[in-house]
Amino acid sequence: MHVPDGFIDAPVSVATGVVAAGAVAVSLRGARRELDERTAPLAGLVAAFIFAVQMLNFPVAAGTSGHLLGGALAAILVGPYTGVLCVSVVLLMQGVLFADGGLTALGVNITDMAVVTTVVAYAIFRTIVKLAPHRRRTVTVASFVAALISVPAAAIAFTAIYALGGTADVSIGKVFTAMVGVHVLIGIGEAAITALTVGAVVAVRPDLVYGARGVTARPLEIRDSPLAPAAPGAVARAEAPAAEPAAAEPTTAEPTTAEPTTSEPTVATSRTPEPVAAPRRSARHVWWAGLAAALLCAGVVSFYASASPDGLEKVAHDKGIDQKAEDHAAKDSPLADYGVKDISDARISGGLAGVIGVGATLAVGSGVFIVVRRRRATAESGRV
After folding, report:
1. Is residue 135 in some structural domain?
2. What is this structure's pTM?
3. Which of 122, 195, 324, 357 is the most exposed place for a label (fewest CB within 10 A)?
4. CA 5 to each of CA 88, 91, 92, 279: distance values in angstroms, whole numbers, following the listed order
């Protein structure tokens, strides 16, 4: 659903640019509360993974394909504010390096694909999680439903933006019907990818899924103290092992009139162990597995993606909203159209471009989120 240059007029493009800039500014502040030392690098990986999976267009109807938007996936994995930033980084890299999505339309694309999808998806996700039983399966199901609805929501948002600033004189009703219709089908693919990804991470490391916090956590186990009263059966079992040593003691004991001892009770029976926080597990294995999956998708699987136009391209051609489309300002980029210039082999060219894109998105995204995390740490240290 990358909107190219020329679809939306200048005033509305500027207005959506202001909205996008404001959303990014708010998200930068909100992401400070969502990121910690483990999730900041993972957020960069989420951006790189979304970039890779967006290269995998899947067929949804005759002559039409779709691809992941990623707002729902990012919001659930790393939080809504961080999710907006993840998708924004992806859109920026695609526009600058790969000539995908217009530069003058960057505000439109961020508003539509980053802000709308993330906000809608996370609101639906949290609603389902609050109302449904707190189980791991609930997180997966909520992810599916949230992602499914977020895609037609983005289609509706685009139609509204086009109604305000479209450059071609077309029937908005027909555009609305066509956009929503095809993007409901695309939403099914988005939902499947999102649910499978979230479900896989929840199954391995639910503590790393932002949306699963407080849902998949196991109840706290409190072990009985030696001084705590036990059930009658437990007392009998506990005293039985001590009976043998007592019987083996010599019967020539001290006189019963001996003064009571004043020694302190032993440490084992006088102190209740304090709860110790479980050490945080490293996310390194998850990070490497995610990177391998992203590189595999972008470098290999992308070659087998559908070559049909995506939903917006198809609707734009059929309804005539692409009459004033303009050439991309970065059309001469060496990576334009997801291929490396001067490499004739399409498989090698596309795979290499995908790998470069994953690396660039990972570097930029990780840099942004690590800086955000450090600013939070600096702010917290200043308050101490």
Report:
1. yes
2. 0.83
3. 324
4. 17, 14, 14, 50
